[in-house]
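Mods, move this if it's the wrong board.
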Amino acid sequence: MKKMTDDELQQWLESGRSMKDLSTGQLDQTDLAVYEWLFSELSKVPAAGLSYGFAEKTGRKAKQQYYRMKDRRLYAMVAVICCIALLAIAACLIMNLSAFVLLVSFMSQYKWIFLFAITFFCLFQWLDMHAKEQSIHRIRNN
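Not the wrong board. Structure tokens:
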């Protein structure tokens, strides 16, 4: 018998006939098995998954939420430290005025160290925030 070409086989299957209707002389057994597997795989609906854009947006939002949480912790810590410092100064004023004068004289003696520490802390926070923004923009653009 004559062997079928790929086009003839495709026309045969598109006409609604099955692979079992073919005689074994028209196809080799290995070809028949390969065609059966191919058409069974092509008839299956592909599994739906999440799009890459959705996964990227979700990852970016998770990173932003993580950074926001870290920033909130830092701001809360700074606020608590400032409140403790103000309460300590208020306690010195209420309890003993001479202790407050002593504290002010101590701070005026080392004012440049205190000023440097505060400036360094603020500069460090600004640079950290700027670096995070740059990394987020870099992630978005890639």
